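Q: Give me the 3D complex with octanoyl-coenzyme A.
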Amino acid sequence: IQDFNHIIAERQGAIALITFNRPKVLNALCTALIAELETALALIEADDSLSVIVVTGNEKAFAAGADITEMANSLFTDVFAADIGGPRWQRLANFRKPAIAAVAGYALGGGCEIALMCDIILAADNAKFGQPEITIGTIPGWGGSQRLTRAIGKYKAMDLILTGRQINAEEAERAGMVSRIVPLADLVPEALKLAEKIASLSAPIAMLAREAVDSALETTLSEGLKAERRLFHASFATQDQKEGMAAFLEKRPPAFQNK
Ligand code: CO8
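A: Here is the predicted complex, encoded as structure tokens.
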């Protein structure tokens, strides 16, 4: 897609595969990496030939958090002025196409929070999730206290955020923050297969669907139901709805045109 220093952005058919690429520091998420991610996401969002994104790391680490060396000596005025953790850091959460996090190894602090910004979290059997910020004298700053709590509930989130302990893939799946667990060797192929399944369906309908699900996290039940209904109604303005339903009635596979 484009050459970067700290991430690899590749095209695999309709799938954009983003790989964090700072293996020596367990993919610590430095500001330059976040800027590259922001650029890559803008390119992918604007490219009609790409419909799903997979974000991954390596076998040892998805990402072990924000880069502590960068933050260690920051003052309040520095992090406040730069709005560290703000919209630029949350770009993945506002990404409009379906996003899959394929997590192996450590997903800690900002790494866990990046995974939580995705729509689906696929975990390798060696994945470890945690919000260890309290052990280094700070708290989650990239949505962890909010998205994690919405994903797994107050009591489990407090357990993780107040102790900094790590949980394995099974505990994370039981808690509801992991969609599926796969063997480590199958992680990226399975994530791509899942992405291809989604990409084989209608891209605009997938965008409506993820916006509807996200409404559940953003608003009250009655407002969320209203948002869902409007998005459902909007699906009837697409050719893909006509094609999908016609194909069902004619007992043939649908040929979605992504319109
Ligand atoms: N930042 C910078 N460097 C890191 C980080 C990190 N988060 N994590 C690991 N590294 C570096 C280590 O310093 C080490 O470097 P070196 O070889 O030069 O000494 C290298 O990666 C390998 O790490 P370890 O030797 O520690 O590897 P281990 O296998 O012994 O341990 C752990 C792995 C348990 C993952 C350990 O590295 C660790 O605890 N890392 C830090 C985890 C952490 O506290 N993460 C939270 C960071 S704070 C955060 O994410 C806040 C997010 C919100 C901020 C908003 C936006 C910026």
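A quick observation: The pocket of octanoyl-coenzyme A is lined by residues 25-26, 28, 64-69, 84-85, 89, 106, 108-110, 132-133, 136, 140-142 (CB under 6 Å).
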